[in-house]
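Hello again, I could really use a second opinion on something today. Take your time with it, there's no hurry, and the full record follows here:

___
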Amino acid sequence: MGTWRTLMHGNVAAWLLQGHCQEGLPARLLMPLGNSDLFDERPLAELFASVERRGVFRVGRTAAGEPVAYTTSLFGAPKVAMYLEVARRAGVEVVIAAGYVGSFVKDVPIGSLFVPTAAIPDDGTSRAYGLDRGPAPADPALTQAIFDAAGARNVPCSAGTVASIDAIMLEDDAMLEGYRRQGASAIDMETGCLFALARHLGMRAAAVHIVSDNAADREIDDEGRHMLSLRTQLEVALAALGRLE
């Protein structure tokens, strides 16, 4: 009957893919990150000629019929890890995340795009997997594709290392200063696990995020102005995946 871990993997895949395990998923995946309670799928679905469900995943097709898988918004490292493992076994090889970061260096404006070149997996899920605690690099070619896609649209991007944590309510000046000393300039809850686990699973991963707040400038966007960049972010991510160019 196999080991319990093998059985559990099969059970979770069946749970998430809901009858599409044999069909699987395309090789390329877009993974939105952030609070799933606030996620609106429509801006993403509108970028495709058609969308079909494969369990909790979606497969969008361009006007040329080329498929790109995507998820609904994933919040926190545990959910990212579960979806990533299932996606890998379903045929996904390349993933670009599109989420949010808080900056803690000056002059990185809210609503601008931030492209992590590496991420510190300082979360419990990465620790449970036994992943390297050092900064996990983004895939260089995918990251360059993001910069190229943004440049083609005259969209400026900042870049740097993001630190990923579990407990957002514990974020304070001392924590950010500690991460600054480690070379980070932004913080989120998912990218570190994504980069580290993708490398462990033999996948290529990169990300393009929206800056939602800036601790160095003491600025929090309580009006949701950063969401005006959502369409641009999604277009850049999909173009970098090589499907909308």
